Amino acid sequence: MASGGTLLFIFTALCVTAVKSGFVKVECKAENVGQYGQQSLLECVVKTSTAIKDPTIRMVAWKKLTSPEDEGDPVLDFKRGKLDRPKRGYRFAEPSWNGKNMNVSLLITNTAVADDGDYKCIVITDSGDGSIVTTLKVQAKYSISTLYSIPEKIVPNTDSTLVCESRGGYPQGTIRWFDEEKHDWTASSKMEAKQSDDGLFQLTSRLSLLGGSTFSKYTCAVFNASGGKEDEKTFEMPPPPPSSQGGIGLVGPPVTPEKCLLRQLCQFHRKHQEQFSNKVEIYKIVVPLVVIGSLIICGLLIYGWRSREDLINFHLSPRPVKADGYTSPSLVRPEVSSCLKGVFRSHCRQSPCS
């Protein structure tokens, strides 16, 4: 009998609690957007059934959740008719809020990246209670701080790099590149994203340009995480030298990104063709010089050989020597001449003495 009475009491208490909970409902916007450095509002109101007259709120608790299962970190707490000291930067949206005010919206006075996430609002009234989870998405607008080239002074028809930097945005965005005809060159760039201590992102993108680019302007544009463009800057390339404005390669329509690979292959082929042409020009100069030098050396050798022959004939000849109209006997005796000629075999093979 006692057990039956206990069960009846528990059942009655549960029914009363369920009925009271049905009388009170907390309604919030499922998702709220807050701007970095500005005020953010999480709108929530308490709704009661028409059967409840003049309800009074006994407790309100706002908690920042790190996960759906987490109990949360209290940022604003009202209970027993008293507002506990709230966490810095959090307060009720209604400045003179009290237990009779059904607007329990939370105001964040100076929104930071750390405020991004889920919040739970718990309300207990004298007629029932309710709770709900709402989300705050923090956004910070990107702006392009710098746009410059490497090298600083671009020499026409040489390779270069454009660098675009954007700071102070959240969540992580992207940088895209366009030419003056709106062709997208982002695929030819590399982007790096760094997150600072305050949670904001710094984006740096580098676009590599080949020498002889046919576009005079390149635009760097930064987009937020939702794909919306927030800022852009344009870089103007230096004009080509007058001698090359009408040259080959600058005639016809500009090269589109889809044809970029073909242009690179053409430039590679042209570069090696120029190197081959330079080598041919060098050969045309060097070969004649080698031939002429060889002929000069051969002539000098022949001249030296004939001079040596004449000298040997003069000194080894046994014939009389004529000088100043007088004939004198040979200074070389015949037997000595024959002996010396034996030493100079090459001469003897061509001399009558042999």
From TrEMBL:
<feature type="transmembrane region" description="Helical">
    <location>
        <begin position="285"/>
        <end position="305"/>
    </location>
</feature>
<keyword id="KW-0812">Transmembrane</keyword>
<feature type="signal peptide">
    <location>
        <begin position="1"/>
        <end position="21"/>
    </location>
</feature>
<keyword id="KW-0472">Membrane</keyword>
<dbReference type="Pfam" id="PF22705">
    <property type="entry name" value="C2-set_3"/>
</dbReference>
<dbReference type="GO" id="GO:0006955">
    <property type="term" value="P:immune response"/>
</dbReference>
<dbReference type="Pfam" id="PF07686">
    <property type="entry name" value="V-set"/>
</dbReference>
<dbReference type="GO" id="GO:0009897">
    <property type="term" value="C:external side of plasma membrane"/>
</dbReference>
<keyword id="KW-1133">Transmembrane helix</keyword>
<dbReference type="InterPro" id="IPR007110">
    <property type="entry name" value="Ig-like_dom"/>
</dbReference>
<dbReference type="InterPro" id="IPR036179">
    <property type="entry name" value="Ig-like_dom_sf"/>
</dbReference>
<dbReference type="GO" id="GO:0042102">
    <property type="term" value="P:positive regulation of T cell proliferation"/>
</dbReference>
<dbReference type="InterPro" id="IPR003599">
    <property type="entry name" value="Ig_sub"/>
</dbReference>
<protein>
    <recommendedName>
        <fullName>Ig-like domain-containing protein</fullName>
    </recommendedName>
</protein>
<keyword id="KW-1003">Cell membrane</keyword>
<keyword id="KW-0325">Glycoprotein</keyword>
<keyword id="KW-0675">Receptor</keyword>
<keyword id="KW-0393">Immunoglobulin domain</keyword>
<dbReference type="GO" id="GO:0071222">
    <property type="term" value="P:cellular response to lipopolysaccharide"/>
</dbReference>
<keyword id="KW-1015">Disulfide bond</keyword>
<keyword id="KW-0732">Signal</keyword>
<dbReference type="InterPro" id="IPR053896">
    <property type="entry name" value="BTN3A2-like_Ig-C"/>
</dbReference>
<dbReference type="GO" id="GO:0042130">
    <property type="term" value="P:negative regulation of T cell proliferation"/>
</dbReference>
<feature type="domain" description="Ig-like">
    <location>
        <begin position="37"/>
        <end position="139"/>
    </location>
</feature>
<dbReference type="GO" id="GO:0007166">
    <property type="term" value="P:cell surface receptor signaling pathway"/>
</dbReference>
<feature type="domain" description="Ig-like">
    <location>
        <begin position="161"/>
        <end position="236"/>
    </location>
</feature>
<dbReference type="InterPro" id="IPR051713">
    <property type="entry name" value="T-cell_Activation_Regulation"/>
</dbReference>
<dbReference type="InterPro" id="IPR013106">
    <property type="entry name" value="Ig_V-set"/>
</dbReference>
<dbReference type="InterPro" id="IPR013783">
    <property type="entry name" value="Ig-like_fold"/>
</dbReference>
<dbReference type="GO" id="GO:0031295">
    <property type="term" value="P:T cell costimulation"/>
</dbReference>
